[in-house]
Amino acid sequence: MCGIAGFAGRGDIADLRAMTRALSHRGPDAENLWSDPSESVFLGHRRLAVVDLAGGSQPMWTADRIVGVVFNGEIYNHAELREDLEARGHRFASDHSDTEVLLHGYRQWGEDLVHHLNGMWAFAIYDRSKRRLLLSRDRFGQKPLYWWRERGVFGFASELSAIEQHSRFDASIDPVAVQKYFGYGFIPAPRSIYRGVHKLAAGSNLTIELPGGEPEVRRWWRFTLEPDAALARRGPEQVAEELRERFETAVARRMIADVPVGVLLSGGFDSSAVAAVAARHRKPGELHTFSVGFDQDSFDESSFAQTMARYIGSEHHSVKFTADHARRVWPEIAGHLDEPMADASLLPTQLLCGIARRDVTVALSGDGADELFAGYAPFQALRRAQWYQRLVPRPIHRAVQLMVGRLPTSHSYLSWDFKLKRTLAGLSYPPRLWNPVWMAPLAPREIAELIAEPVDPEQLFEEAIEAWDESRRLSLVDRSLQFFTRLYLSDDILTKVDRASMAHGLEVRSPFLDIELVDLARRIPSGWKLKHGQSKWILRQAFADWLPNEITQRSKQGFGIPISTWIAEANPPFDAAPNSSFGKERLEAHRNRSADHRLYLYAQWLLDSFESRALGQTRAA
């Protein structure tokens, strides 16, 4: 796992060195730079050594020095691909480097290389014979990749912080991105917080002919649900068995490393399943597991993590995350997060990854299961929401909202008043906007009030609408699954885990996102994912024998933190008032418990912190 950076065009080796060093936290083991001023191409790499410690140095080149690559990620089927390529006549120099597989794979298949890969990646391949750069990002966007073109430069990097270091970069915040930030809680690809800087979307390639060509972006893969009638006829027992087999293979692939491997164990169903299989690949007591708990009971899952750790016999490490931890972690978050992302669980995730890094270099997680198998609370609200909107006239709905808005506010984890108020807010909009509004720090009308100009919900949520409208013939559950998997998973969950883990030089791998498992999950009927109100029903059928009853029978709990209480009690760093009158009014309402504005207030504080840092850098420059 690493950090990559580079550019073509104006600039020099000092720019490349500054860009690459901004990524030192992503790759603490080595720094390597390559440049050819005559071609005006510069490639930089920071390495976290995980596979082939001696032979995986980058930038890596073919023997004839024609094709080079800088790569961030892991290719889990690299051994199989190497065998295939060797049978086709390719000769490898390294012992078992997955990076070298990319070079020979590109030589064999060109841009279609990506269809052969099972893994997570962001890479840049420079073909000197064609004077062409190829950038690629994995199917779900597990590894980040930004690109930028202006003033005679085409640049790319793992993080915005590296692009900021180029001498020709001119930082300017994108107001549309800010609106989307308050609408989603994150900035969906391909936008970034800066004008002119783009995220390469998940499952996309970018090619550019040098010098001076125009970047061409092509989407080579997109998550799409295709419920399979033939699969349904096989029955849930057979499908559960196949799901179990593919999952075991996915975990086994991710246990392969030349460094210690552990598991991030929340105590929930998904990470417990990962830990159960991972334990089979280590001797008793060899597997390390890690969890974080909270001193507010409604948020704390640590007892379940302890139960699971005892069940599999792992060496377990746990810490309680408190308001004091939040105060200490906050400067790290504000300093390392290269654009604002209003998922407050980033704070304990940052702490958890730091604890894990003391004992392991690689950790497995349960990320992806909720999005693929309908694990979130909104899935269970869909049918009732549909009936409510059909039966309740708009004037009555508004009256209900007013009455519910007067209910006492609780700051507990997903309290019933919080869920009811959120549900009703979403039902003020058409169904294709339910999911984003339910998750949003601010509804469109509130964003318009904040920025003092009209906001078109159709433009604000165009990415969510696209995911919804593409699946018109699918069930409400499937249409929601596409929203959560395409947007929330890629641009929130995986971004959060990448930033928190790489801040400590920890690589996190997600077995549920193995492409062979995903291809099965895409075809499973939604009625087997959410059945009789039980989320992830087919997963529970598949994994029930692996886990203790305390884990299999408990309901879903997200990785939330008691930030609402900390804001109400004015605990640092949540004691300062937002800059605007809009924010001050909501902070006062939150503290007198007449409303719950936790999502907006956290989002606003993070944006204010980012803008202060960006403004400070601009002044320094």
- What would you report as the Rg, rounded to the nearest angstrom? 24 Å
Helix content: 40-55%
DSSP strand count = 17
Known CATH architecture of the largest domain: 3-Layer(aba) Sandwich
CATH top level of the largest domain?
Answer: Alpha Beta
The span between the termini is: 31 Å
Structural class: alpha+beta
CATH topology of the largest domain: Rossmann fold
| Quaternary assembly | single chain
| Overall residue-averaged pLDDT value | 90
The largest sheet, given as strand count, sense and whether it forms a barrel, is: 6 strands, antiparallel
Biggest sheet, spatial arrangement of strands: 2-3-1-9-8-10
Description:
This protein is an alpha+beta fold and 621 residues long. It has two domains: 2-219, Glutamine Phosphoribosylpyrophosphate, subunit 1, domain 1 (4-Layer Sandwich); 229-374 and 479-552, HUPs (Rossmann fold). It is built from 26 helices and 17 strands. The strands form three sheets. It has a six-stranded antiparallel beta sheet. A hairpin with a 4-residue loop joins strand 2 and strand 3 (41-47). It starts with a strand and ends with a helix. The relative contact order is 0.12.
Compact description:
With 621 residues, the chain is α+β, with helices and mostly antiparallel strands.
Record keyword descriptors for this entry:
six-stranded antiparallel β-sheet, Glutamine Phosphoribosylpyrophosphate, subunit 1, domain 1, 44% helix, 621 residues
